[in-house]
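Holo prediction — zinc ion.
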Amino acid sequence: MDNSQEIDKLFTNDFPEKPLSLCFLGDEVLRKKCDPVADFSDKFNKFMNNMHKAMKKFGGIGLAAPQIGVSLRAIVVEINKRVILLANPEIINCSDGIICEEEGCLSIPGQVFSVERTGFIEIKARTVTGGRIHFEADGLFARALQHEIDHLDGVLICDKEW
Ligand SMILES: [Zn+2]
């Protein structure tokens, strides 16, 4: 599978002079199941760095590719200056404990929803260069990762309100 068409969409924008634009609730791309990333070329690497810049610009702690109109399984999360860029993330294990907290989403501005998440997750994913990684997360980091991974399956927090 080739991602280049999806990624090319982004380079019609000359970031950061012309910032990537966000997609909002109601945009079809937010409801699609995203395609796996298969091409880990420099182009993908650059795409991920641009996605991170966009996330910072829009003031989020996480961003998923469909939120900028690209239907690929790619996310970025940044918490306490710890940045993680992931392709094809999968939750392979989680705790039984459910925690309900309010969440916001850049694609649903000005609203918060109470969302139940598990407090601990184990993830496997690919790095921007295609390397395999496997790690554990808890607290806000685990919550943000679950939020972004939901985006890759077309799931938004307004669907999950407790
Ligand atoms: Zn979101």
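READOUT: Residues 105-107, 147, 151 surround zinc ion (CB under 6 Å).
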